[in-house]
């Protein structure tokens, strides 16, 4: 199959195939493996790379051990020009460009998505007063928490009770309201179920950069089929809820899309589809400045220059005794 493109079955080599060059590196490797093509010349299945006699040289780093198409930095392919008449039957196009800037914004390291869903929360028998919020699904937390804004929006006026909050950054004594008899539903109202008692907590992770978007799904071929199942980010909806292990149904995976090793993966939960992983491939530019502003102290007394992880949350309620008067 020398010179034959295994993707289009046309007489153009892979090095001139726009579809192949636009793939992430892991998908290009997978394509070569599936078609048993030589990783060196990428033109035949008659031999493997260690027996390949073809002279190759990477145009990016000058290496003679791999082809340019397998160089880890994709900057070369963002501006690769494909000339007319050299496409072996593919539709003509002037260039292949990367959309990474659009989905990553100013974050040079790319967006790192986590399990965040847009949901509706309401009190029983008051579904018409449902509040839209983003919920963080965190199996590292033993209790479900909600920010004060959600308590206020639902009109919950219960008295505050003390509890102990333990995170990677330490242990603190705090207090908050309790909310019972609440319901949660997916944004399309197809799934509804009861929530356990929510505890008021201000320290819920609220990084909006971690919210999955349709653009991120469209950026990866294996996630494109679910792009229309992920709602666009609503700037009016806040991250006000954290669902811990006390609501196991929310964490059950109903469907799973894996993809290449280093690519983001997707899961269908009862509350909707989520994407987990970093949304950028290729070379990540190094930062020019590194500053240390403080030394952190972990709960065991160990000091560190690294910022403690705030995503592990353990809650221990403190029960108060009530004296009865006979």
TrEMBL record:
It comes from Stichopus japonicus. This is Peptidase aspartic putative domain-containing protein. It comes from the Eukaryota.
